[in-house]
Amino acid sequence: MWNELWASHRGKVIGVAAGIFFGFIYLFFGFWDMLIFGFIVFLGLYIGNKLDRKESFAMLEDIWRYLTQKWRMFR
Question: What residue ranges are annotated as transmembrane (predicted)?
Fold first, then answer.
């Protein structure tokens, strides 16, 4: 089971494991940081999912396109 999971969803497994690791670091610093823990695990899952799909997880091109079209009126 674990080998099949590792073979088909390697990025998600690494992302969630990294998220849990860094989340536990934040979790030990206080109760309210549990929200940060959940966010970090979700972020690890998101990045891992993007890596599995071979997509870019940093949407720099989309952000640049949005900003240049938004501020085009000032040119």
Answer: 20-47
User: CA–CA separation, 43 vs 50, rounded Å?
Assistant: 11
Q: Given this model, what pLDDT does residue 31 score?
A: 59
Enter the tokens of residue 11.
């990025």
Phi, psi angles (nearest 5°) of residue 3 = -65, -40
Query: Mean pLDDT for each 10-residue chunk of the chain (75 residues)?
Result: 83 85 76 72 84 74 75 62
What is the rounded distance in angstroms from the CA atom of residue 25 to the CA atom of residue 63? 31
Which phi and psi (to 5°) does residue 64 adopt? -65, -45
Q: What is the DSSP letter of 1?
A: -
Distance from C-alpha of 62 to C-alpha of 65, rounded to nearest angstrom: 5
Q: What angle do CA 7, 12, 15 make, to 5 degrees?
A: 125
